[in-house]
Design a protein that fits this description.
This protein is 70% helix and 2% strand. With 166 residues, it is mainly alpha-helical.
């Protein structure tokens, strides 16, 4: 089933999702480096701003994802897509909470739990993994955003690959 949200036949949602995933994971890695080395630049700038970029990127990737979700007709794919969407929304809320708790006003809420934003990032990265696995199920098991109508060169018989002009 080809994606309705596509550019030149290429689905937009899979083009956008690597950015927030990478930014969220790098934010988590920056937190780990902060815990290891103790340099606040890793937590206060790198983790903070990469998480912000991940939140913005996830919101941007959600739009074509919602368009694809709204056009699903296969019941089994819809079930998986619903879980994929739920877990992504929960994961995004977790990252938004972690981001807010890193701000000056948010940090005042949890003065007794200074590690809470880091713990939320751990849960968020786990959520990314689960949502990513479900997204893979949608593509590889259910063919969502895969255009099967177009033939590829690899489907031609092997004898045609070796024909030379005289």
């Amino acid at each position: 089933m080809a994606s309705k949200a596509s550019i030149g036949g290429h689905p937009i949602h899979p083009m956008l999702i690597p950015f927030p995933i990478a930014l969220f994971i790098f934010s988590f890695v920056a937190d780990l480096i902060y815990l290891w080395r103790g340099n606040p630049i890793w937590r206060d700038y790198l983790a903070f701003y990469t998480m912000l970029g991940g939140i913005i990127g996830a919101a941007a990737a959600a739009v074509p994802g919602l368009i694809d979700w709204a056009t699903l007709t296969d019941r089994a794919a819809v079930r998986v897509a619903n879980w994929h969407a739920r877990i992504n929304v929960i994961t995004l809320v977790i990252f938004v909470a972690s981001f807010y708790l890193r701000t000056a006003s948010g940090a005042s809420w949890v003065t007794s739990l200074p590690m809470l934003p880091f713990y939320l990032s751990i849960v968020g990265v786990i959520g990314l993994g689960i949502a990513g696995w479900l997204g893979g199920q949608l593509v590889f098991a259910h063919g969502v955003a895969v255009d099967t109508r177009k033939g590829s060169k690899s489907e031609q018989p092997a004898t045609q690959h070796h024909i030379r002009a005289a």
